[in-house]
Amino acid sequence: MSLCVVYNHPLDFFSFAPSACAPTHTGLLSCLSAAQDYVCTLQGSHVICTCCFQPMPDRRAEREQDSRIAPQQCTVCLQPFCHLYWGCTRTGCLGCLAPFCELNLGDRCLDGVLNNNNYESDILKNYLATRGLTWKNVLADSLAALQRGVFLLTDYTVTGSTVLCYCCGLRSFRELTYQYRQNIPASELPVAVTSRPDCYWGRNCRTQVKAHHAMKFNHICEQTRFKN
Ligand SMILES: [Zn+2]
Ligand SMILES: [Zn+2]
Ligand SMILES: [Zn+2]
Ligand SMILES: [Zn+2]
Ligand SMILES: [Zn+2]
């Protein structure tokens, strides 16, 4: 948790909230947390957390020399996030920045996870539920497969230890989950699922968001026709 102590702050003398650390502050300001002990300088620059919109002292340059300073930005999109620095306090924030393997994607991360196709996503959800598995198992197994080179990510620099924001983490999780689903043997899925013919557009199909079409055709497959 964060503790941001402001001395002689012109607006909020006794505030201990991080929100008191306004980038425009003119007072002498000290931002403390359990892990970091740091005093903002008068001219010290701040970055705004993309999640809670609160400023934090910008120590990204320092971090390049000293890895003990917590990461303050996503490795992929480079947007600043405060969660690893002092714990993001936005209501509903699940932890907006973390190593991919530790990212809390939330219980709804499997909704529409497969190509935004709710029907296919529900098939996977049922498969997991009957085995007592959750998205955490999918992530852990997929990251292990990624490490073995069995699964692939578009951004090949991303591994389980890459520090990611929630959005970039979810995007990579969706890519991995598709491969996880692809690797489930047909024998472990209901006949009603495996007996459907493949849609010609496969995973790229734009009609698969419609329930009737999604139910009638399999979309866990590559596009086989109408390719340019
Ligand atoms: Zn500050
Ligand atoms: Zn990101
Ligand atoms: Zn934040
Ligand atoms: Zn946050
Ligand atoms: Zn289709």
Automatic annotation (TrEMBL):
Using the record's annotation, list all stretches that form the PBZ-type domain.
196-219
Q: Does the keyword RNA-binding apply?
A: no
For whether the record's keyword set contains Oxidoreductase, the answer is no
- For the E3 ubiquitin-protein ligase CHFR cysteine rich domain, which residue ranges apply? 31-184
A single BP term in Gene Ontology: ubiquitin-dependent protein catabolic process
- InterPro entries given for it? APLF_PBZ (IPR019406), CHFR_Znf-CRD (IPR040909), E3_ubiquitin-ligase_CHFR (IPR052256)
- Keywords on this record? Cell cycle, Nucleus, Transferase, Ubl conjugation pathway
Localization in the cell: Nucleus
Q: Which residues form the signal peptide?
A: none
What GO CC annotations are associated with the protein?
nucleus
Q: What is this protein called?
A: Checkpoint with forkhead and ring finger domains
Q: Which organism is it from?
A: Phyllostomus discolor (pale spear-nosed bat)
Species classification: Eukaryota, Metazoa, Chordata, Craniata, Vertebrata
